Amino acid sequence: MKALAIGTSDFKEIIETDAYYIDKTLFIEELMVGNKVKSALFPRPRRFGKTLNMSMLKYFFDIDHVEENRKLFKGLAIENSPAWEHQGKYPVIFLTFKELKCTSMEEFLEKFLDFLVGIIENNYPYIEKIEGLVRSEKRFLNRLFDFNASQSDLEKTLKTLGAILNKHHGTAPILLIDEYDAPIHAAHTHGYLPEMLNFMRNFLSAGFKDNEHLTKGIITGILRVAKENIFSGLNNITTYSILNRQFSDKFGLTQPEVDRLLNDADCTEDREKVANWYNGYAFGGTTQIYNPWSILNYVAHIPDGLRAYWVNTSSNELIQEILPKADKATQDILFDLLKGEKVAAQIDEFTVFNDLYAGRKTTVLGLLLFSGYLTAEDRIDLNTYELRIPNQEIKSMFQNMLQNYIGTSITQAKDTVLIQSLLEQRANTFAEALAQYVKTSFSYFDIGKEGNTEKIYHAFMLGLLAHLDKNYYIRSNREVGYGRADIYFYPKDTTNPKAWILEFKKKDADDKGDLKSLAEDALKQIYDRDYLDEIKAHGHTEILCMGVAFEGKQVVCAFDR
C-alpha cells in the first residue's frame, strides 16, 4: 500500500511523492458543470479535507503552470469529465488563513501583509512588469512591497489583485479563500473580535460583491459566522453546509472510499466496529461520511486498535468554554445525546458569539453540529433537526469533558462501591459512599458556585450512569406523573424488577430546615408527583426512591423502597 500523507494538505506534494490519494477531483465537476453559482461557502468541521480540496482546485485551474499541473491529474476522475476543459484556464488567488491566528489586530495586520507579499512574490513574479497598470494599481503594489500598505489596502486586496491579473491574462481569476474564520476565532479569544469582523466584512465584500474581476469564488471555514457581521450584503454567496445534499460527499470519506482504503491496507478488523468509531456523519441528511483524519490515522496505526484521533488534534477550547455556560435545557439535551438517544432540536445555522456565551440553546447546538461534535439525520421542519452523537470517538470526548467539568474521574468511579451499592440498592452504603466521595474528590471551586451546584451533581450522576446505557434505560428531567423527575432508570431486562428514582435538592440561604429535612422533602416529592407511575407501568416493583440534599461538600440522602 502507498504511504499515507497524513497532515499533508498540498495536493501537488501528495501526487508527486506517490502518496495514497482518495480521488475527490469530481468536486471540480460539481462546481463547474451545471452549477451557475458564482461564489460558494463550504463550512465543514476541521480536518475534513478543506485545505487539500482547495489546493487541488488551485493546481487544476492555475493558468501559469498548465502543462506541469496537467500531469498531476493523470488517471484521476476529472480527466474523463466535461469539466476537464477548465484545466489551466484561469489565474488563481489562493489564500489560506489557517495559520493567521494572532493575539491582537495589529499583529494580524502585520502578519497578513507579510503573508500577502510572500504569496504575490511566489505566485506572480511578473506582476510589476504587467503592461497597462494604472497609477493606483502601481501605487498599491509599491505600498505592499515596501511593507507600507494600510488596512484599507489590505481590505481591497482581492479586488485590486484580481483586476491586475485579469488585465494580464485576459480572464477573470478564481478566488480561493481557505479557513476564513480561523483569525475570527483567535480574535474572539484575545478580545479584538469587533475589529476583526469589520476587517473580514470589508475584505470579503471587496472580493466577492459585484466584482467584475471574478470568475468563481470558493470560501471554506468551520462556522458560518452571522451574516450581519461578515457576509453583509453578499447575497451572491451560496452556502453549502453539512445540511445540504449538494457537495455532501466532497469533504470527508464515503463508505465505498473507506472500503477501498481498508482493503488496500489489508485491514481484517471488524468493519462494523471501525464504522462505529469513525463513521456516522449524515451530511445532507443522507450521505454517510467518515471522519477522514481518524480513519486515516487508524489505518496508519492498525496494531494500536480503535482509539480517538480527531478529538485530540485540538484543545477544543471553544467547546469546553461554552458547555458549562449552556442553559439547563441544553444540558438536558446533551445528557440525552450522551446516552445514545436522538433528539429533535432547533439549531442556528449562523454563529453569533454573544449568543454562544449567553448559553443560547440553538446557538450552542449549532456550534456543536457544524464543528463536527453532532450530526443531523433528518430535517423535521424549519431549523429543527434530529440530532445525535455521530460515533464512539465523539462520545468518548463528551464523557471526558464531563469528567473535567465535575473535577473527578467517572471511569474510576464506575467500578467503586459507589455505583455498585446503588445498583444493588444498598441505600445506606450508597449514601455513605456518596458523602465521602464528594468530600474527598469534588473541587469546592466547582460545587461551591452559586446557582450551579445542582447541575454539578446532576452531571456527576448522569456521567456515572452513562456507562450503564447498554443495559439500562436512563432518563433525565423527563415528564412523568405530575412533574419532572431529576433522574430515573430501570433495566432493559424485563425480568429484573429493580428500578431507581433520584431527586436532588440544593440548600439555599433562605431554607430554614437542615439537609436531612430537605432530603426528605425531595423524597416526598417523588411520591406526591407520582414519579413512580411510568416505572411501575414497565413492570418494575423493587423501586429505590432517593432524595439527595446538598450544600457545598455536604450531602444527605433520604430513601425508601
Which fold does the CATH topology of the largest domain refer to?
A: Rossmann fold
Shape: elongated
Contiguous runs where pLDDT drops below 50 for at least 5 residues: 406-415, 444-452
- How many structural domains are formed by the residues? 3
Strand content: 15-25%
Largest sheet: 5 strands, parallel
CATH class of the largest domain: Alpha Beta
> What is the β-strand count?
16
Mean pLDDT: 87
Number of alpha- plus pi-helical segments: 25
Radius of gyration: 28 Å
Distance between the termini: 62 Å
Which class do the helix and strand fractions yield? Answer: alpha/beta
What portion of residues is helical? 40-55%
Adjacency order of strands in the biggest sheet = 2-3-4-1-5
- Which CATH architecture of the largest domain? 3-Layer(aba) Sandwich
Helix/strand layout:
Layout: H1 11-16, H2 26-32, E1 39-43, H3 50-61, H4 66-70, E2 92-96, H5 105-123, H6 135-145, H7 151-155, H8 157-169, E3 174-178, H9 182-190, H10 193-208, E4 216-221, E5 237-239, E6 253-254, H11 255-264, H12 271-278, E7 281-283, E8 287-290, H13 292-300, H14 317-322, H15 328-338, E9 343-346, H16 353-357, H17 361-370, E10 375-381, E11 384-388, H18 392-406, H19 410-413, H20 417-423, H21 427-441, H22 444-447, H23 453-466, E12 472-480, E13 483-491, E14 498-506, H24 515-528, H25 532-537, E15 542-551, E16 554-560
Parallel strand pairs: 1-4, 1-5, 2-3, 3-4, 14-15
Antiparallel strand pairs: 6-8, 7-8, 9-11, 10-11, 12-13, 13-14, 15-16
